[in-house]
Design brief:
By secondary structure, the chain is of the alpha+beta class. It folds into two domains: 1-117, Roll (Thiol Ester Dehydrase, Chain A); 134-292, Hotdog Thioesterase (Thiol Ester Dehydrase, Chain A, Roll). Helices cover 18% and strands 37% of the residues. The chain contains five helices and twelve strands. The protein has helices at 3-12, 37-53, 139-146, 152-159, 198-208; strands at 16-19, 22-25, 61-70, 80-89, 93-102, 105-116, 164-168, 183-190, 230-241, 251-261, 264-273, 278-290.
Length: 292
C-alpha cells in the first residue's frame, strides 16, 4: 500500500470517536488550500456507518445512498467534527443525518440511508464501449509524455502521490480550448490492495467519486478546474450504491453533463466494474463562475 492510500485508509477515513454520535476527522497534509470534497463525503459516510453498526443489525444494513450539500470551504489545517443524528431505524432501512463542523459552523450536511440486503427485480443500462484499462497508458506514462507541457497548477496536482490510480479514456493532461461534448470516461481504482471490508470499499469509492465529476461540465467550454479564471466548487453530491464491488479493482466512471446555466454545472456519473455491471451512480452540481 503506497503512503497516500495508507494515509487515506488509516488516518483520513479512520475517525476518532468522541461521543456516541460525535466523531472527529483530520485532513492529509497535501498542500491543498481547501479540504477536498470527496474527503468530507467519505468521512461523513464513515461516521454515519459507525452509528448503524452500533445498533447490531447483524451488520447486514449496507449503504445504498447518500445526499450531501457543501456549505462552506473546509480548512485542512484543523480537524472536522462530525455530528450524527440517528433519524430512524426501521425494519429494513436506517437513516442518518450528518453535519460536519469547523470553527463553529457547518461546512457540510449529508443524509444517508442503509438497507438490509434484499432480492428483487433487476435491470441496468449497458456499459459504454471504451478501451479497457490494460490498453490505456498508465499515469506514469502519461506524466512522462505531457508533464512538462502542463501549466504549473496541473503539474503540482499530477506530481503528488495519490491514493487513487486513474486512467482516462480521453486525455485529461491537456488544456484543450476546442469545445467538445460534455462527457468523459475514466477508469479508476485504489492504488493498492484494500482490506476486505465492504465499508472501506464504499468509503473509498465515495472519496474517489468527487475527483473528476465537476470537470465534466467545463469540457464543452474548453476549460478546466485548473483555469485561474474559473471559480469552481462542488455544491452538492449524491451517490447510489447498486451492487457489490471492490474499489481496488478497475472501475469505469462514465460521466456526462446534461446542462450548465446560472453559473452552475450539472453532472452525472455511472460506475461500472470490469464485468460491465453498474455498481453505483452519482450526481453533482457545482459552481462554475467565469471571471475572465
Amino acid at each position: 500500500m503506497n503512503a497516500a492510500l495508507d494515509t487515506l485508509i488509516n488516518t483520513t477515513l479512520n475517525l476518532e470517536k468522541i461521543e456516541q454520535l460525535i466523531f472527529r476527522g483530520v485532513s492529509p497534509k497535501n498542500g491543498w488550500q481547501r479540504v477536498f470534497g470527496g474527503q468530507v463525503i467519505g468521512q461523513a459516510l464513515v461516521a454515519a456507518r459507525h452509528t448503524v453498526k452500533a445498533m447490531d443489525f447483524d451488520n447486514d444494513r449496507l449503504t445504498h445512498s447518500l445526499h450531501g450539500y457543501f456549505l462552506r470551504g473546509g480548512d485542512p489545517t484543523v480537524p472536522i467534527v462530525y455530528e450524527v443524528d440517528p433519524v430512524r431505524d426501521g425494519k429494513s432501512f436506517s437513516t442518518r443525518r450528518v453535519v460536519a463542523i469547523q470553527h463553529g459552523h457547518a461546512i457540510f450536511s449529508m443524509i444517508a440511508s442503509f438497507q438490509k440486503s434484499e432480492n428483487g427485480l433487476e435491470h441496468q443500462i449497458d456499459m459504454p464501449d471504451v478501451p479497457l484499462p490494460k490498453d490505456l497508458p498508465s499515469e506514469s506514462e502519461l506524466k512522462s509524455q505531457h508533464m512538462d507541457k502542463l501549466p504549473k497548477a496541473m503539474q503540482q496536482y499530477w506530481s503528488r502521490e495519490r491514493p487513487i490510480e486513474m486512467r482516462p479514456v480521453e486525455s485529461r493532461y491537456t488544456l484543450d480550448n476546442a469545445s467538445k461534448q460534455p462527457s468523459q470516461n475514466v477508469w479508476f481504482r485504489a492504488s493498492s490492495k484494500l482490506p476486505d471490508d465492504v465499508d472501506i470499499h464504499h468509503a473509498v469509492l465515495a472519496f474517489a467519486s468527487d475527483f473528476s465529476l465537476l470537470d465534466t461540465s467545463l469540457i464543452p467550454h474548453g476549460t478546466s478546474i485548473f483555469d485561474p479564471k474559473m471559480q469552481v466548487a462542488s455544491l452538492d453530491h449524491a451517490i447510489w450504491f447498486h451492487r457489490p464491488f471492490k474499489a481496488d479493482e478497475w472501475l469505469l466512471y462514465s460521466q456526462d453533463s446534461p446542462s450548465s446555466s446560472g453559473a452552475r454545472g450539472f453532472n452525472r456519473g455511472s460506475i461500472f466494474n470490469l464485468q460491465g455491471q453498474l455498481i453505483a451512480s452519482t450526481a453533482q452540481e457545482g459552481l462554475i463562475r467565469d471571471h475572465s
